[in-house]
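Q: For a teaching handout, I want to show students what a protein-ligand complex looks like in C-alpha coordinate form. Below are the inputs, and the small molecule is zinc ion. Please produce the holo structure.
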Amino acid sequence: MAHPEILPDLFFVQRGYLNGNHFVYRSDRPVLIDTAYLAHFDRTRQSIADLGADLARTALIVNTHTHCDHIGGNRRIQELSGCDIALHRIGRHFIEARDDWSTWWRYYDQEAEFFQCTHSLEDGEPLAIGPHEFRVIHTPGHAADGIVLYHPREKLLISADALWERDMPVITLRVEGSRALFDCLDSLEKIRCLDVRLVCPGHGRPFEDMPEAVSRWKKRIRGYLERRESLGDDQLKRIIVYTLLMRPGREQATFFDHLMNTVWFPETCAFFFNGEHRRKFDEVMAGLIHRRIVTCTDGKLFTPVAA
Ligand SMILES: [Zn+2]
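A: Here is the structure, written as C-alpha coordinates, with zinc ion included.
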Protein backbone atom coordinates (compact mmCIF):
# COMPACT_ATOMS: atom_id res chain seq x y z
CA MET A 1 0.00 0.00 0.00
CA ALA A 2 1.30 3.46 -0.86
CA HIS A 3 1.60 5.63 2.20
CA PRO A 4 0.11 9.11 1.71
CA GLU A 5 2.44 12.08 2.20
CA ILE A 6 0.27 14.31 4.36
CA LEU A 7 2.85 17.12 4.62
CA PRO A 8 6.23 17.36 2.87
CA ASP A 9 8.19 14.24 3.93
CA LEU A 10 5.60 13.33 6.59
CA PHE A 11 3.94 10.03 5.72
CA PHE A 12 0.83 8.36 7.11
CA VAL A 13 1.16 4.57 7.49
CA GLN A 14 -2.25 2.98 7.74
CA ARG A 15 -2.43 -0.31 9.62
CA GLY A 16 -5.32 -2.45 10.91
CA TYR A 17 -7.09 -2.79 14.24
CA LEU A 18 -4.35 -4.47 16.28
CA ASN A 19 -1.68 -2.02 15.09
CA GLY A 20 -2.25 1.69 15.48
CA ASN A 21 -1.59 3.79 12.37
CA HIS A 22 1.77 5.56 12.56
CA PHE A 23 3.69 8.38 10.91
CA VAL A 24 7.17 8.76 9.53
CA TYR A 25 8.95 12.06 9.00
CA ARG A 26 11.65 11.19 6.49
CA SER A 27 14.93 13.02 6.94
CA ASP A 28 18.54 12.38 7.84
CA ARG A 29 17.27 12.14 11.43
CA PRO A 30 13.78 10.63 11.11
CA VAL A 31 10.97 11.39 13.54
CA LEU A 32 8.26 8.79 14.19
CA ILE A 33 4.80 9.29 15.60
CA ASP A 34 3.72 5.99 17.24
CA THR A 35 5.26 2.59 16.49
CA ALA A 36 2.35 0.07 16.26
CA TYR A 37 2.19 -3.31 18.08
CA LEU A 38 5.24 -5.24 19.25
CA ALA A 39 4.44 -8.61 17.67
CA HIS A 40 4.18 -6.98 14.22
CA PHE A 41 7.40 -5.01 14.54
CA ASP A 42 8.91 -6.55 11.40
CA ARG A 43 6.13 -5.06 9.32
CA THR A 44 6.51 -1.72 11.07
CA ARG A 45 10.24 -1.75 10.36
CA GLN A 46 9.61 -2.66 6.73
CA SER A 47 7.08 0.11 6.16
CA ILE A 48 9.47 2.66 7.66
CA ALA A 49 12.34 1.37 5.48
CA ASP A 50 10.10 1.46 2.39
CA LEU A 51 9.68 5.18 2.97
CA GLY A 52 13.44 5.68 2.84
CA ALA A 53 13.89 6.44 6.55
CA ASP A 54 16.82 4.81 8.36
CA LEU A 55 15.49 3.41 11.64
CA ALA A 56 18.98 3.42 13.20
CA ARG A 57 19.12 7.20 12.63
CA THR A 58 15.77 7.90 14.37
CA ALA A 59 16.03 11.12 16.37
CA LEU A 60 12.67 11.12 18.14
CA ILE A 61 9.52 9.07 18.70
CA VAL A 62 6.39 10.94 19.75
CA ASN A 63 3.65 8.72 21.16
CA THR A 64 0.01 9.73 21.18
CA HIS A 65 -0.51 7.52 24.27
CA THR A 66 1.03 4.45 25.92
CA HIS A 67 -1.41 1.77 24.69
CA CYS A 68 0.35 -1.31 23.31
CA ASP A 69 -0.76 -0.76 19.71
CA HIS A 70 0.98 2.65 19.63
CA ILE A 71 4.27 2.05 21.49
CA GLY A 72 5.10 -1.50 20.34
CA GLY A 73 8.30 -0.63 18.45
CA ASN A 74 9.60 1.95 20.95
CA ARG A 75 12.08 -0.15 22.86
CA ARG A 76 13.64 -1.81 19.82
CA ILE A 77 13.93 1.43 17.90
CA GLN A 78 15.44 3.14 20.95
CA GLU A 79 17.97 0.30 21.34
CA LEU A 80 18.88 0.64 17.68
CA SER A 81 19.12 4.42 17.48
CA GLY A 82 19.32 5.83 21.02
CA CYS A 83 16.40 8.09 20.06
CA ASP A 84 14.48 10.39 22.37
CA ILE A 85 10.89 9.46 23.22
CA ALA A 86 8.24 12.05 24.07
CA LEU A 87 4.94 11.38 25.84
CA HIS A 88 2.33 13.43 27.62
CA ARG A 89 3.55 13.89 31.19
CA ILE A 90 0.96 11.42 32.51
CA GLY A 91 2.21 8.75 30.09
CA ARG A 92 5.78 9.54 31.11
CA HIS A 93 4.76 8.92 34.70
CA PHE A 94 3.23 5.53 33.81
CA ILE A 95 6.42 4.48 32.04
CA GLU A 96 8.78 5.73 34.74
CA ALA A 97 6.66 4.19 37.52
CA ARG A 98 6.57 0.90 35.56
CA ASP A 99 2.78 1.09 35.82
CA ASP A 100 1.66 -1.46 33.22
CA TRP A 101 -1.88 -1.41 34.59
CA SER A 102 -2.66 2.20 33.72
CA THR A 103 -1.19 1.58 30.26
CA TRP A 104 -3.73 -1.31 29.94
CA TRP A 105 -0.96 -3.86 29.15
CA ARG A 106 -1.41 -6.02 32.26
CA TYR A 107 -5.11 -5.31 32.56
CA TYR A 108 -5.84 -6.65 29.07
CA ASP A 109 -3.01 -9.22 28.96
CA GLN A 110 -1.21 -7.41 26.11
CA GLU A 111 2.36 -7.67 24.93
CA ALA A 112 4.52 -4.56 25.40
CA GLU A 113 7.99 -3.54 26.58
CA PHE A 114 9.05 -0.62 28.75
CA PHE A 115 11.38 1.95 27.23
CA GLN A 116 12.97 5.19 28.34
CA CYS A 117 10.85 8.31 28.05
CA THR A 118 13.10 11.38 27.70
CA HIS A 119 10.60 14.23 27.18
CA SER A 120 7.21 15.13 28.56
CA LEU A 121 4.57 17.01 26.60
CA GLU A 122 2.02 19.45 27.95
CA ASP A 123 -1.39 20.51 26.70
CA GLY A 124 -1.07 23.50 24.36
CA GLU A 125 2.68 23.14 23.82
CA PRO A 126 4.17 23.51 20.32
CA LEU A 127 5.85 20.43 18.85
CA ALA A 128 8.09 20.52 15.78
CA ILE A 129 8.19 17.46 13.54
CA GLY A 130 10.97 18.56 11.21
CA PRO A 131 9.76 21.90 9.78
CA HIS A 132 6.12 21.12 10.64
CA GLU A 133 4.79 23.03 13.62
CA PHE A 134 2.16 21.07 15.51
CA ARG A 135 0.39 21.83 18.74
CA VAL A 136 -0.12 19.21 21.45
CA ILE A 137 -3.69 18.88 22.73
CA HIS A 138 -4.39 16.65 25.73
CA THR A 139 -7.49 14.51 25.09
CA PRO A 140 -8.12 12.13 28.02
CA GLY A 141 -11.06 9.72 28.13
CA HIS A 142 -9.92 6.72 26.11
CA ALA A 143 -6.44 7.06 27.66
CA ALA A 144 -5.45 9.32 30.56
CA ASP A 145 -2.29 10.32 28.67
CA GLY A 146 -3.92 10.68 25.23
CA ILE A 147 -2.87 13.56 22.99
CA VAL A 148 -3.72 14.68 19.49
CA LEU A 149 -1.40 16.75 17.29
CA TYR A 150 -2.84 19.72 15.47
CA HIS A 151 -1.23 21.68 12.63
CA PRO A 152 -3.14 24.99 12.56
CA ARG A 153 -1.71 26.36 9.31
CA GLU A 154 -2.36 23.17 7.33
CA LYS A 155 -5.57 22.45 9.29
CA LEU A 156 -4.36 18.91 9.84
CA LEU A 157 -5.27 16.79 12.86
CA ILE A 158 -3.45 13.63 13.94
CA SER A 159 -6.30 12.40 16.10
CA ALA A 160 -4.89 9.08 17.40
CA ASP A 161 -7.56 7.24 19.41
CA ALA A 162 -9.40 10.43 20.37
CA LEU A 163 -11.38 10.44 17.12
CA TRP A 164 -11.93 7.82 14.42
CA GLU A 165 -14.16 8.21 11.40
CA ARG A 166 -16.95 5.71 12.14
CA ASP A 167 -16.03 3.45 14.99
CA MET A 168 -15.14 4.17 18.57
CA PRO A 169 -12.31 2.71 20.65
CA VAL A 170 -12.73 0.85 23.95
CA ILE A 171 -13.52 2.97 26.97
CA THR A 172 -12.28 1.26 30.14
CA LEU A 173 -14.01 2.75 33.17
CA ARG A 174 -12.20 0.40 35.57
CA VAL A 175 -8.84 1.82 34.51
CA GLU A 176 -9.66 5.33 33.31
CA GLY A 177 -12.14 6.02 36.10
CA SER A 178 -15.87 6.60 36.33
CA ARG A 179 -15.61 10.01 34.67
CA ALA A 180 -13.98 8.63 31.50
CA LEU A 181 -17.06 9.12 29.29
CA PHE A 182 -17.33 12.72 30.46
CA ASP A 183 -13.63 13.20 29.76
CA CYS A 184 -14.25 11.87 26.25
CA LEU A 185 -17.04 14.41 25.75
CA ASP A 186 -14.77 17.24 26.94
CA SER A 187 -11.95 16.05 24.67
CA LEU A 188 -14.31 15.87 21.70
CA GLU A 189 -15.46 19.40 22.44
CA LYS A 190 -11.83 20.58 22.38
CA ILE A 191 -11.39 18.89 19.00
CA ARG A 192 -14.67 20.24 17.62
CA CYS A 193 -13.46 23.80 18.13
CA LEU A 194 -10.45 23.28 15.82
CA ASP A 195 -10.46 24.27 12.16
CA VAL A 196 -9.65 20.96 10.46
CA ARG A 197 -9.41 20.01 6.78
CA LEU A 198 -8.04 16.48 7.21
CA VAL A 199 -8.07 14.04 10.11
CA CYS A 200 -5.52 11.21 10.26
CA PRO A 201 -6.84 8.83 12.94
CA GLY A 202 -5.14 6.15 15.02
CA HIS A 203 -7.13 3.45 13.23
CA GLY A 204 -8.84 3.57 9.83
CA ARG A 205 -8.30 5.82 6.84
CA PRO A 206 -7.88 9.60 6.80
CA PHE A 207 -11.15 11.54 6.56
CA GLU A 208 -12.39 15.07 6.04
CA ASP A 209 -15.75 15.39 7.73
CA MET A 210 -14.60 15.98 11.31
CA PRO A 211 -17.87 17.53 12.62
CA GLU A 212 -19.79 14.45 11.45
CA ALA A 213 -17.35 12.09 13.20
CA VAL A 214 -17.47 14.18 16.41
CA SER A 215 -21.26 14.23 16.51
CA ARG A 216 -21.48 10.50 15.76
CA TRP A 217 -19.12 9.82 18.63
CA LYS A 218 -20.92 12.14 21.06
CA LYS A 219 -24.18 10.39 20.25
CA ARG A 220 -22.59 7.04 20.97
CA ILE A 221 -21.31 8.29 24.33
CA ARG A 222 -24.76 9.61 25.23
CA GLY A 223 -26.07 6.10 24.40
CA TYR A 224 -23.53 4.58 26.78
CA LEU A 225 -24.55 7.02 29.49
CA GLU A 226 -28.24 6.17 29.03
CA ARG A 227 -27.68 2.41 28.96
CA ARG A 228 -24.49 1.53 30.77
CA GLU A 229 -24.64 -2.20 29.85
CA SER A 230 -24.08 -1.19 26.20
CA LEU A 231 -20.64 0.07 27.20
CA GLY A 232 -19.91 -3.27 28.91
CA ASP A 233 -21.11 -5.18 25.84
CA ASP A 234 -18.87 -3.11 23.56
CA GLN A 235 -15.89 -3.65 25.85
CA LEU A 236 -16.41 -7.43 25.92
CA LYS A 237 -16.79 -7.67 22.14
CA ARG A 238 -13.83 -5.47 21.30
CA ILE A 239 -11.40 -6.99 23.76
CA ILE A 240 -12.34 -10.54 22.72
CA VAL A 241 -11.62 -9.62 19.10
CA TYR A 242 -8.38 -7.94 20.19
CA THR A 243 -7.39 -11.06 22.17
CA LEU A 244 -7.87 -13.21 19.06
CA LEU A 245 -5.90 -10.74 16.93
CA MET A 246 -3.03 -10.94 19.40
CA ARG A 247 -3.13 -14.73 19.60
CA PRO A 248 -5.07 -16.27 16.71
CA GLY A 249 -5.98 -19.95 16.90
CA ARG A 250 -7.00 -20.10 20.56
CA GLU A 251 -8.76 -23.35 21.47
CA GLN A 252 -12.49 -22.75 21.60
CA ALA A 253 -12.89 -25.36 24.37
CA THR A 254 -10.60 -23.49 26.78
CA PHE A 255 -11.24 -19.90 25.70
CA PHE A 256 -13.71 -19.16 28.49
CA ASP A 257 -11.26 -20.44 31.11
CA HIS A 258 -8.52 -18.37 29.54
CA LEU A 259 -10.65 -15.22 29.78
CA MET A 260 -11.56 -16.01 33.38
CA ASN A 261 -7.84 -15.98 34.17
CA THR A 262 -7.38 -12.45 32.84
CA VAL A 263 -7.88 -9.39 34.99
CA TRP A 264 -10.31 -7.63 32.70
CA PHE A 265 -12.90 -10.27 31.86
CA PRO A 266 -14.23 -11.26 35.30
CA GLU A 267 -14.04 -7.63 36.39
CA THR A 268 -15.99 -6.36 33.38
CA CYS A 269 -18.70 -8.99 33.94
CA ALA A 270 -18.83 -8.06 37.63
CA PHE A 271 -18.96 -4.32 36.93
CA PHE A 272 -21.64 -4.33 34.23
CA PHE A 273 -23.42 -7.67 34.40
CA ASN A 274 -23.74 -8.78 37.98
CA GLY A 275 -20.95 -11.33 37.59
CA GLU A 276 -22.77 -13.42 34.99
CA HIS A 277 -19.54 -14.53 33.32
CA ARG A 278 -20.70 -17.63 31.50
CA ARG A 279 -23.95 -16.12 30.25
CA LYS A 280 -22.19 -13.03 28.90
CA PHE A 281 -19.43 -15.11 27.32
CA ASP A 282 -21.93 -17.35 25.52
CA GLU A 283 -24.02 -14.37 24.41
CA VAL A 284 -21.10 -12.28 23.13
CA MET A 285 -19.37 -15.19 21.37
CA ALA A 286 -22.64 -16.25 19.68
CA GLY A 287 -23.10 -12.69 18.39
CA LEU A 288 -19.50 -12.42 17.13
CA ILE A 289 -19.69 -15.82 15.40
CA HIS A 290 -23.09 -15.03 13.89
CA ARG A 291 -21.72 -11.77 12.43
CA ARG A 292 -18.58 -13.66 11.27
CA ILE A 293 -16.34 -11.32 13.26
CA VAL A 294 -15.06 -14.50 14.91
CA THR A 295 -14.75 -17.81 13.07
CA CYS A 296 -14.15 -21.31 14.40
CA THR A 297 -12.11 -23.85 12.40
CA ASP A 298 -11.22 -27.27 13.83
CA GLY A 299 -12.01 -26.06 17.33
CA LYS A 300 -9.74 -23.00 16.99
CA LEU A 301 -10.87 -19.39 17.04
CA PHE A 302 -9.85 -16.72 14.56
CA THR A 303 -10.97 -13.27 13.52
CA PRO A 304 -10.88 -12.01 9.95
CA VAL A 305 -10.63 -8.39 11.19
CA ALA A 306 -7.52 -6.77 9.67
CA ALA A 307 -4.61 -6.76 12.11
ZN1 LIG B 1 -5.61 3.44 22.47
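A: Two things your students might notice: The domain at 5-225 is CATH 3.60.15.10 (Metallo-beta-lactamase; Chain A). The mean pLDDT is 96.
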